[in-house]
# Entry
Amino acid sequence: MRQKANWVCVGLAGLFALVAAAHAQVVFETTSAYHHILVSDNQGIRTLYFDHAPETRMALADPLKGHFEYTEYFHMPWLWNTNLKNVLMIGLGGASVARAYQRYYPEVMFEVVELDPKVWHVAKEFFGVQESRTLRIFIEDGRLHLRRSRKKYDAIFMDAYTANRYGSYIPYSLATTEFFTLTLDRLTENGVLAYNVIGKLPTSRRDGEIVPALYQTLKAVFPQVYLFPAARDYNVVLLATTSAEPATLPKLNQRADALAAGKWAKTPQFKLRLQSFRSELPAGAAKVQPLTDDFAPLDGMLNVAP
Amino acid sequence: MRNWAAFLLAFLGGFALMVLEIVGARYLGKDFGGSFYVWISQIGVILIALALGYYVGGELADRFQRTSILAWLLASSGLFTFLMPDFAGRIIDAIVMRHPLDQPIPRIWQKLDPALGSGLIFLLPCFVLAMLSPFLIRLAARKLAHVGRVSGLVYAASTTGSIAGVFTSGYVLIDRFSLTQIFRATGVLTVLLGAMCFLMDRWLVDDQSEMKES
# Structure
């Protein structure tokens, strides 16, 4: 009898799982010149997919929740510059970072460059961002935009991806020493470049060379590079500073405490996220050459998500 | 023997052409970004080069009936390809910087600028490489009754070379060599094709004079 009840339980659980999966409701679907774009809602979470790879998550009840962990590392530049005024982000997606900046730091001028006009449409319609006095969108290639702009930024955020069945990968023109030299030139004093890399800190050969390669490429241009590996997800945010002074976790913790007393670093988990800080050379980086416009075999290091 | 020479030349010509197309798209990508229009323009421009090259190549083949003219064209286009890494950057710079700074490039030019870049850089060498096929058909087909077989052979050889060029570029060359090295090597290959045409010309002329004597 007990046995039978167990089977009923298992059956019911399975049925619930099926119902939950079936509940993933497609809100919007389109194909652009760059991606197959899908927006779906499941259990209160709205997810944006490019070619079946999840790009953005957002809680429907509170748009400032439900996001991927890596987006919180884009708040770390406050530790190097408490006076961020102009920020440029390349790669919009579902606008998690733009939304958070508009909410937490409404006085910061936030510019986004997005290649795909349909992505901007989707972000407006389904992820609640609006162009405003302090949020501007440019539909253009990120590198071309930066090259043709003479403006300086206090921070530049990189989150431009394309995806295919095998995972997400970085457009190679946004990952070379020539590109980073351009970003360095467009950063102000105490400027910070934050780069989301889909990948993990390598512990074995199977983890790929993408993080070490990006690290070495940034290090060839910027005086200091740090890493923030996401605890739960398959992301590492690399942070490159124009400041040559080496940062350490105790020093950054002190700064974070000082910030918390003021109007900065208002994200609820700022201090917790800071603990992901790494300053040591990632394993395998010594063997990797920086990527250049002339030689960037990024497709050969295609990042396979686990 | 003639057929084998034609096969080899057509194969190598097709190979060089597709290396230029694939690696060229990669090259344009660093300035025009991951833009979809880079591929559209590169494919479109190479097809224009093929159409023009086939037509003009056929005309020249009938008029001169010797590969020596093609030898010179290939040698100069090989030199052009060899020097590409040195001048192409400036052409692209002129294209993207001609729009007013500090504002986005108009949508229409976002689409057309990559085609302009492909056209100015890759049209000429691909146009000359495309001339090879009609020339080879003209020279290898000695009897009207064999034109079908010979032209089929040349098309097949050139397309097989192109297939090899696509896969070699995408799977091997881009991962192992710098773009500069690949362009330089393709330039050298094109000059070698010119030299082979020159030798073939001498050989065919000897052949013809022998035929007249006998």
The interface with chain A takes residues 26, 29-37, 85, 96-97, 99, 101-102, 104-105, 107, 110, 174-180 of chain B (CB under 8 Å).
